[in-house]
Amino acid sequence: MAASDNRRPSGGHTLFRYTAKDIDGRTVRGTMEAADYDALYAQLLEQGLYPQRVTGRGADRRPRTLRPQELSDLCRQLSTLLASGVSLVRALTIISQDEGISAGLRRVYESVLSEVRKGSSLSDALEAQQVFPALMLGMVRAGEGSGRLDRVAERLAVHYEKAHQMNQQVKSALMYPMILAVLSVAVVIVIVTFVLPQFSDLFSTMDSLSAVTLALMAFSDFMVTKWYLLLLGLAALGLDFRRAVLRVPSVRLALDRGKLKMPVFGKLHRIICTARFARTISSLYASGLPIITALQTARDTIGNAYIVSQFDAVLAQVRSGVSLSAALESVDGFQRKLCSSIAVGEETGQLDSMLDSIADSMEYDAQQASRRMMTILEPMLIVLMAFVVGFIIIAVMSPIIGSYSAIESSGNV
Q1: With the CA atoms of 368, 374, 376 and 378 taken in that order, what torsion angle do they form, in degrees rounded to the nearest 10?
Q2: Nearest Cα to 325, choosing from 284, 383, 281?
Q3: Which among 56, 207, 307, 350 could disulfide-bond with 16, CB atoms 3.0 to 4.6 Å apart, if both were Cys?
Q4: For residue range 313-370, what is the model confidence (pLDDT) as tens digits?
């Protein structure tokens, strides 16, 4: 059931080669024209094909969306140059000739410059690269329409700088717990593969061992002799899990809903999702985009499928005349502070400034929540590591102590 299409790509589309599997596990190869990788994957899934390998535009993988720090630097330079009266072509030429950027970024900027020189608008030139987020494309289009491209670029620079700072805060908060977790696993592996085998000869001379000790020694023997099977099993499990999430939207929905309900991480995840939405809707609305368009773009930056799935109802309510604050109250996953702040902005006629304020407030809350999470996780991981190591020691020492007690008892008799 190959869906081959050997036509030349039409404007704005790319011809991709793909290898996929159908529902019966048969391998299907072919070519298909699509706007981007996401569109291609959606088309294949609609046909009951599950992508295994996709190539397009001479690449073996999907183009990487530029990082927030890279986007911030680009927008900051563009804003400064345009505000100084430099033409767009000259500004892009200066940016693409910057010696501090990587070769990959230079190729992207030069391609944008080439498209602009051919007469394309900046937004169309950026969209053709497939590495710029929808938020940036929408705001640049709004800036082109209003003639305030320099101000929009400045606001984008601030937006992506804030996004970069939030990402760094979360990574910093998780770094130490991750190190502790890795060390815990490493300690257990060392004990199971190097320490426990030293007791195997001793245990073989004993008449009876507890079920816990027998299970622990069997696991130790498995780790020593067949450790590669464990690695293969974990890799297969991880691959199957990713495929399940990709194939079954309900699984992704349930997982993202679970993230919001977790005891420790749930609140932090809710705050981060709320902060992303608040910052994005603030930037879009202040750039002059209609509220419906701003909502459609902002929902794609939230990063949680469960929250995004509720936005069809939000959009329908806003289109029917319901206020933004009232429509967002029905969304399960946002912090309540968001709706109350938006309501104040609507009543005072200063929605753009209130959106900015709530975005700053939620980002501060995310920073504090990440610190509290780290404070809780550190002792929890230490206690967990102590429990696992203690369990292993007890399982090993109990039969030894029991044998010594039996020898002492027989000696007394």
Answers
A1: -160
A2: 281
A3: 56
A4: 999 999 998 888 899 988 888 888 888 888 888 888 888 788 888 888 887 887 787 7
CA-to-CA separations, 115 to 14, 109, 110, 111, 160, in angstroms, rounded: 17, 10, 9, 6, 24
Q: Where are the beta strands (DSSP E) in 22-77?
A: 27-34, 50-56
**Which tokens belong to 41?**
């994957």
Q: Which letter does DSSP use for residue 62 in this model?
A: P
Q: What gap in Å lies between CA 159 and CA 413, rounded to an integer?
A: 82
| Beta strands across the sheet bearing 50-56 | 27-34, 14-21, 50-56
Cβ-based burial of 159 (10 A; exposed 0-12, middle 13-18, buried ≥19): buried
**Paired residues of 162 in beta bridges:** none
DSSP label at 299? G
User: What does the longest C-alpha to C-alpha distance in the chain come to?
Assistant: 103
Of 111-120, 151-160, 209-218, 404-413, least confident by mean pLDDT is 404-413
Q: Which residues pair with 50 in a beta bridge?
A: 21
174-179-180-184 Cα dihedral, nearest 10 degrees:
130
Q: What value does the mean pLDDT of the chain take?
A: 79
* 202 vs 221, higher pLDDT: 221
